[in-house]
Specification:
Strand content: 5-15%
CATH architecture of one domain: Orthogonal Bundle
CATH class of one domain: Mainly Alpha
Order of helices and strands: HHEHHEEH
Amino acid sequence: METYKTPLDAAFHALSDPTRREVVSRLTRSPAPVKELAAPFAMGLPAFLKHLRVLEDSGLITTEKTGRIRTCRVRVERLAQAESWLSEQRAHWLAMTDRLASYVETKMQEDDGNDG
């Protein structure tokens, strides 16, 4: 198992794989048993369980065994932490592009004023 410095690092590592992103996406709709989650993927159950382990270790999902059925649930609060970080980055870059656009407009107006 890899060790990450922060829960956010672990979350983004887990979400870096398309299979794991699909599993998280499916679990945002409702909890599901492992067998149901694994069905759409062209891989053996042992390989699929490795993906679930990464998601569980990252804190993005939890699993609970009742009898012979293991059910997975998304941990919305952990997913929200990743979304919050992405929102902060988006806001930062939007502000940067807004400032750049304002600067370019100002320069264009100055240049238009100097043409006369």
